[in-house]
Model the fold of this input.
Amino acid sequence: MKKSFFQKTYNLIINLTIIGLICFLAQFCLGLFYQAIELSGLSQYNNSFILINDSLDNIKQVILVFSISILAISSILVIGQLLYRIAKDSLWNYFKSVYQTIRMRQFLKQVEYSEPIVTIENQTITRFNPVLSKFNQSVRKCTVDIHQEEVSIFLKLPRTQQAQKLLKDMEEHIKEEISNYNPNYYFSTPLRVGNKLWFKGTKR
Done:
């Protein structure tokens, strides 16, 4: 089994969008700093401030080009998905895929309660459960891809045995959850392929 284009690019689009927005914010903050130096008139009396402003202006331009490029790539990937859905499937299924991916990740995520530990020196150290950390890292890659004739749910298996057991115990709950969102599809038992777990649903 292979991941669909939606499943391959979903996390990439999110990461690119976040990076692009952070770069825009950084460029905006540098712009404010640049304006503050200009309005203060310091650049008129000190050559060092002239150099600083020139450097800020150059950095701003580089960050702006980089952020626009990143967001452009993200937009192209999304537009490609939308055009494909319009031509081959349904545009509504794309938005359902995004929504159900978000909901499934929320459903799978385990709350990591901190465990206070008192050391010999009577110092309290907060430690998080490493099993839940590994599990949550894996479920952040979960994607739900909905098409007219089938639904595909991809899960990456955690590396540790304890985290895999936790996921195994949740299989029936996952199947019930996804069936609740897609009552017109019949879901078979999950299939493991390598370090990947697949739930497949076919139209009733």
User: Anything to note?
Assistant: The longest helix spans residues 47-88. The radius of gyration is 24 Å.
